[in-house]
Amino acid sequence: MSKQKKLIDRPVPKRPLGSTGEMVSLLAVGGYHIGSPSDPRVGVEIIRTAIDNGVNFFDNACCYHNGRSEEIMGRALREGYREKVVLMTKNHGRDYDTYKKRLQQSLTRLQTDCIDVVQFHEIIQEGIPEKLFKDGAIDAAVEARKEGKIRFIGFTGHKWPSLFLEMLQKNFKWDTVQLPLNVLDYHYRSFTKEILPILLEKKIGMIGMKSMAGGDALEIGGLTPQECLRYSMSLPVSTVVVGMDSMQLLKQNLETASKFKMMSDSEKSDFRQKTRPHAENGEYELYKTSTSYDSGL
After folding, report:
1. pLDDT recorded at residue 25
2. Is 1 within the bounds of a domain?
3. Residue 177's beta-bridge partner residues?
4. Among residues 64, 81, 231, 287, which one is catalytic?
5. Is the pLDDT of residue 63 over 80?
6. Is 64 among the residues known to form the active site?
7. In the structure, what pLDDT confidence band is assigned to residue 2 with cuts at 50, 70 and 90?
8. pTM (2 decimals)?
9. How many other C-beta atoms lie within 10 A of the C-beta of residue 61?
10. What's the CA gap between 194 and 184, in Å, rounded?
11. In a domain, 264, yes or no
12. Which is deepest, 52, 91, 113, 131, by most CB within 10 Å?
């Protein structure tokens, strides 16, 4: 096993992942950016250093860099690291056969017999919720859970709260939901206002993402990555996924998480008011208003 590399003095806080029984770190490592550096050893170092510093929730998806992100994560989780984490990936399968095929690809790339959380990815178009249930993708996931290939089932999306409502109204017990949660979201097509209360009531694990609106929130001016992340962590989430493609970014986010102090209601309100003029038409939430964040699968 590689030598541990400690970057922080205080532990990263942990919260319950809904009603799964798992406790997960408030900071999670995003899978997409792991595959961005040309040298895969960078991603391996980020993942292992994050684990050495108390991060135990890891995000990925079968589509990230055509599977490269999963391959790098699988390599990083060897030598005893797999047992230390709650591993999550996402599956684009909309029917029984496609789901099973992509799940097997993810298991192979991640070098594991069981993935802790597998989420139906990109619930972003009309008709997808119905298709998942009609064409057997849900059946494939339940079957995989019975076979011990996955433990928990969830879904993700970044465009329409209405589609999340449709998914949550299905006769199915979701374990997790991953959704964009940031200060801009409060003002436009708000997952924060429309979906979070339902997830809380149902005790579903809430996985926040896009705490900086894909970086676009920082274009507004006057906002820092640290306060954007602190805001998202101050919501009733289980964990917040952050993309990191360098050790510098990992250290910065570890420090924010380890020193985390909950924003008061008045602080959150002031922060929202500060961004309201820039947020009411989704101009800085391109994942909602454009196709630039869609995988196309």
Report:
1. 98
2. no
3. 155, 206
4. 64
5. yes
6. yes
7. low
8. 0.96
9. 25
10. 14
11. yes
12. 91
pLDDT at residue 297 tops 80: no
Distance of CA 151 to the CA centre of its chain: 17
Does residue 295 sit within a domain? no
CB 58 within 8 A of CB 83: no
Q: What angle do CA 120, 95, 18 make, to 5 degrees?
A: 25
Contact 68, 97 (CB under 8 A): no
pLDDT in tens, 191-213: 999 999 999 999 999 999 999 99
Give me the domain span that covers residue 129.
14-289
Which letter, b or e, does each residue of 138-167 get, where b requires 16 or more Cβ atoms within 10 Å of its Cβ?
bebbebbbeeebbbbbbbbbbbbbebbebb
Separation CA 28–CA 256 (nearest Å): 12
Token digits for 188? 């436009």
The answer to whether 67 and 25 have CB atoms below 8 angstroms apart is no
Contact 242, 30 (CB under 8 A): yes
Name residue 152's beta-bridge partners: 117
* Whether residue 1 has pLDDT greater than 60: no
CATH number at residue 95: 3.20.20.100
Residue 148 lies in a domain: yes
Structure tokens at 249: 């970014």
Whole-number pLDDT of residue 222: 85
Q: Where are the beta strands (DSSP E) in 173-264?
A: 176-180, 205-209, 239-242
